[in-house]
Write a structure and sequence with these properties.
There is one protein chain. The chain is 32% helix and 36% strand. It has 199 residues and is an alpha/beta fold. The protein has helices spanning 2-22, 88-103, 172-198, and strands at 27-29, 49-57, 66-71, 75-84, 107-111, 122-134, 138-149, 154-166. The chain contains three helices and eight strands, in the order αββββαββββα. The strands form two sheets. A five-stranded mixed sheet has the order 5-2-6-7-8, with helices on one face. It has a single domain, classed as 3-Layer(aba) Sandwich (Rossmann fold). The chain starts with a helix and ends with a helix. A hairpin with a 4-residue loop joins β7 and β8. It is elongated and about 70 Å long.
């Protein structure tokens, strides 16, 4: 009887190993800054305003390691083998901060929380409601944002963004690249408002 159980256990182990070997590799993706610096005169550090990016909110549905594909009839697919290399919320905020630093060369830009570096002149509060992927169709970004003058705790500008780009294929790699482009366009919109506020 014990030999029967032993043989069964060994068979299960072998099957488990074979299944593990047969599983496809996991691909990891990151969002990247794609903004380009404007042609402008750089000021000295002492004259630079300080901009804080954040806090940022992201739907809980999307803030996970698996990439999310929206399908028909209000259903989603979680890509077990296509995942974000870092927490999505952190990656999005890092990209927006880098974009803003590129677009605002006359400012010092920091990610939330920035308390260790001291106060900022303006903070940009961002609420992302959609950051969607529909493979073979499109990617979409919808967000509300507000610029607050930190000392007065006053909203000096705000806006909404709804940006969509068509996907040419059904790969998550293409989706990640286009999502980066959406963040770049959002950054440009916010940077334009910041420039108007500063003047």
């Amino acid at each position: 009887m014990s030999n029967t159980y032993s043989n069964g256990f060994i068979s299960l182990c072998i099957l488990g190993l074979l299944s593990a070997c047969a599983a496809p590799p996991t691909h990891f993706y990151t969002l990247e800054s794609q903004s380009k610096a404007p042609e402008s005169t750089i000021t000295t550090n002492s004259n630079k305003i300080q901009i804080g990016m954040g806090p940022l909110s992201l739907p809980a549905l999307l803030d996970r390691k698996q990439m999310v594909n929206h399908t028909e009839n209000n259903t989603i697919e979680l890509a077990e083998f296509d995942q974000w290399a870092a927490p999505l919320k952190d990656n999005v905020l890092a990209v927006l901060t880098k974009n803003m630093a590129t677009l605002q060369p006359n400012a010092i830009v920091r990610s939330y929380p920035w308390g260790v570096y001291g106060d900022v002149d303006y903070r940009v509060i961002i609420d992302i409601s959609r950051f969607d992927t529909q493979l073979s169709k499109s990617v979409c970004l919808e967000a509300n944002w507000a610029i607050m003058e930190e000392k007065k705790h006053t909203i000096v500008s705000n806006g909404q963004a709804k940006i969509e780009k068509s996907l040419s294929d059904n790969s998550y790699q293409s989706a990640a690249q286009l999502l980066s482009q959406l963040l770049s366009q959002l950054s440009q919109q916010i940077a334009l408002s910041l420039q108007q506020v500063e003047h």
